[in-house]
Amino acid sequence: MTYIYIYLALAFIAGFVIAWILRTLSIAKTNKALKSTQGYLESALLKKETLQKENIQVHQLKQVVEMDCHKRLEQANHLNNVLDSDILLLQKSNEETEALLQEGQPALHALKLQLLDAQNTIARYKAQQQQTVKKV
Question: What is the radius of gyration, based on Cα positions, of the chain?
């Protein structure tokens, strides 16, 4: 009967050791999964922070480009206004000169018109040549 108690005690101890080993393996597996999950979470957080920084940089770059475009647009508008006023002044001066020449010296007026026509023709040829060069 004492052997039965010894075997029972040994079986109980063996069962306890087996249960302890199974529990230890289960805890180790759970800890490994937890560390893996934490690593994935940290990786996702780092990616999110990196994307946020990149978005901020892109937004700042966009603002710089927009400001540059606005400055260029303002400069172009100012230049257009200056050119418009210069054109109006030139037209007025040309009209006055043309009227004076027509009254006083009609031959000089005719030569002036031929000169303007020649200048316009030259300008057209130059523009066509530049377009041809750009296409090639």
Answer: 46
